[in-house]
């Protein structure tokens, strides 16, 4: 799953076992999940 | 007695008419048919390619669904009744695309339809306010369906009727109490006491305040049970004339279907 660090803007992988939720490059703890590139079909109701 | 229709106002989107010599059941049938039994096109599915706006995809889809689209009842059929069996052929599906980048307000007029007969009925319905760098790219798929499935398929809006008011003045002493009491200001003092002139009677809301304030009980307010003042409004998918015709046609079809069933028993 691709996440993005909000400080250094790099794509990061989350290491659940060792570092937890933390950017391996800058140590920032706020990561956001990027919108997937797939087409999303939604019912309009 | 034969039913009569007397048109008071008629424009593209709204109509006001008097339906006389008809039963309340029939008047209500016409009202209900125009609300729920006249099929119309509305956006039903949305394929979202990109949405970096502040609205969630679901919220955006809901807003798109409620935009009225112009419809030709002869050209399209509801998905369930289509010969393609739900596979979405051109007879039951229209695709509209929307591609916009901020900063700007996106309106219903920005939807690009694949079929030129199907357009947003109003070009100025705001969909979303995009800020700098925000983007929306999507394909909306419109289907035809009935108002009883979802309110977005309601062709008739604000359809209603009231009975024709009958207000009579007998032995009026011209005290003027009813003139001051009437919330619609339609009563005035004439040569033979209080009266309501001409088409002003159509404005009467049957509140009966004039009757209650009259000390000598000279005013009686009643209603004609066979006559109705109808107001009808279309959402823009049809002209109001087409809407009433289509409502009448659906009632006729249902009645003939019932007749066929009863005959086959």
Q: What would CATH call the class of chain A? A: Mainly Beta
Fill in the CATH topology of chain A.
Answer: Rubrerythrin, domain 2
Q: What's the overall geometry of chain A?
A: elongated
How large, in whole angstroms, is the Cα Rg of chain B?
25 Å
Mean pLDDT of chain B: 92
Count of strand segments of chain A: 4
Task: Note the run of SSEs of chain A as H and E.
Answer: EEEE
Name the average pLDDT of chain A. 88
Q: Please tally the helical runs of chain A, counting DSSP H or I stretches of 4 or more residues.
A: 0
- Indicate the CATH architecture of chain A: Single Sheet
Which structural class do you get from the secondary structure elements of chain A? mainly beta
Supply the number of structural domains of chain B: 2
Number of strands of chain B: 12
In terms of structural class, how would the helical and strand content of chain B be classed? Answer: alpha+beta
Name the CATH homologous superfamily of chain A: RNA polymerase ii, chain L
Helix content of chain A: under 10%
Q: Helix segment count of chain B? A: 5
Question: Which properties best describe this structure?
Answer:
heterodimer; A: 45 residues; mainly beta; Rubrerythrin, domain 2; 3-stranded antiparallel β-sheet; 4 strands; elongated; B: 265 residues; alpha+beta; Gyrase A, domain 2; RNA Polymerase Alpha Subunit, Chain A, domain 2; 2 domains; 4-stranded antiparallel β-sheet; 5 helices; 12 strands; 36% strand; flat; nucleotidyltransferase (chain A); RPABC4/Spt4 (chain A); metal-binding (chain A); Rpo12 (chain A); DNA-directed RNA polymerase (chain A)
Give a quick rundown of the structure.
The complex is a heterodimer of chains A (45) and B (265). Chain A is an all-beta fold and 45 residues long.
Task: Describe this structure as you would to a colleague.
The complex is a heterodimer of chains A (45) and B (265). Helices cover 0% and strands 27% of the residues of chain A. Chain A is built from no helices and 4 strands. Chain A is elongated, with a radius of gyration of 14 Å. The mean pLDDT of chain A is 88. Chain B is built from 5 helices and 12 strands. In chain B, the strands form 4 sheets. A 4-stranded antiparallel beta sheet of chain B has the order 1-2-12-9. A 4-stranded antiparallel beta sheet of chain B has the order 3-8-4-6, with helices on one face. In chain B, strand 10 and strand 11 form a beta hairpin. Chain B starts with a strand and ends with a helix. The model of chain B has no long low-confidence stretch (mean pLDDT 92). At the A-B interface, strand 4 of A face strand 3 and helix 2 of B. Strand 4 of chain A pairs antiparallel with strand 3 of chain B, so a sheet runs across the interface. Chain B: This is DNA-directed RNA polymerase subunit Rpo3. Chain B: Its cofactor is [3Fe-4S] cluster. Chain B: Its EC number is 2.7.7.6.
């Amino acid at each position: 799953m691709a996440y993005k660090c909000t400080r250094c803007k790099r794509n990061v992988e989350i290491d659940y076992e060792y570092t937890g939720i933390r950017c391996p490059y800058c140590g920032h703890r706020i990561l956001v999940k990027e919108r997937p590139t797939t087409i999303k079909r939604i019912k309009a109701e | 007695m034969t039913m009569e229709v007397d048109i008071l106002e008629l424009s593209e989107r709204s109509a006001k008419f008097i339906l006389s010599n008809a039963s309340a059941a029939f008047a209500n049938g016409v009202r209900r048919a125009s609300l729920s039994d006249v099929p119309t096109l509305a956006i039903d599915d949305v394929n979202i390619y990109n949405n970096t706006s502040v609205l969630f995809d679901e919220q955006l889809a809901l807003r798109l669904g409620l935009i009225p689209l112009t419809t030709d009842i002869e050209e399209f059929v509801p998905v369930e009744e289509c010969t393609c069996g739900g596979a979405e052929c051109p007879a039951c599906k229209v695709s509209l695309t929307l591609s916009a980048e901020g900063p700007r307000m996106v309106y219903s007029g920005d939807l690009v339809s694949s079929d030129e007969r199907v357009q947003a009925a109003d070009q100025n319905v705001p969909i979303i306010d995009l800020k700098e760098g925000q983007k929306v790219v999507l394909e909306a798929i419109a289907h035809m369906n009935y108002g009883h499935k979802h309110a977005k398929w309601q062709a008739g809006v604000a359809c209603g009727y009231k009975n024709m008011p009958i207000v009579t003045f007998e032995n009026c002493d011209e005290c003027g109490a009813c003139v001051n009491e009437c919330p619609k200001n339609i009563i005035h003092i004439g040569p033979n006491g209080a009266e309501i002139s001409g088409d002003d009677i159509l404005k009467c809301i049957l509140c009966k305040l004039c009757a209650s304030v009259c000390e000598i009980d000279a005013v009686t307010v009643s209603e004609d049970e066979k006559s109705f003042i109808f107001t009808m409004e279309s959402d823009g998918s049809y002209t109001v004339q087409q809407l009433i015709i289509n409502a009448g046609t659906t009632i006729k079809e249902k009645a003939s279907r019932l007749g066929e069933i009863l005959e086959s028993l």
